[in-house]
Amino acid sequence: MVNMRGQGNTPTIIAATKTKAAQNTKALIERVKPIWIAS
Questions:
Q1: Residue 1: CB partners within 8 Å, gap ≥ 6?
Q2: Cβ-contact 15, 21 below 8 angstroms
Q3: Contact status, residue 1 vs residue 7, Cβ threshold 8 Å
Q4: Which tens digit of pLDDT belongs to each residue from 1-39?
Q5: Could you write out the DSSP letters of every residue in 5-39?
Q6: Phi/psi zone of residue 3: left (φ > 0), alpha (ψ -120 to 50 degrees), beta?
Q7: Which uninterrupted H or E stretch holds 4?
Q8: Buried b (16+ CB within 10 A) or exposed e, 13-31
Q9: Rounded distance, CA 13 to CA 19, Å?
Q10: Residue 4, number of CB atoms within 10 A of its CB
Q11: pTM to 2 decimals?
């Protein structure tokens, strides 16, 4: 936390990672949904 310059990028990286994870999860649900409906 002492390094203020390096800290600036961290929230952006975390946000991008969360967004990507959310998109992957959504894509996975969309792929699995027809299987749930069929069974």
A1: 7
A2: no
A3: yes
A4: 455 565 667 778 888 899 999 999 999 989 988 877 776
A5: HHHTTHHHHHHHHHHHHHHHHHHHHHHHHHHHHH-
A6: beta
A7: helix 4-7
A8: eeeeeeeeeeeeeeeeeee
A9: 10
A10: 7
A11: 0.52
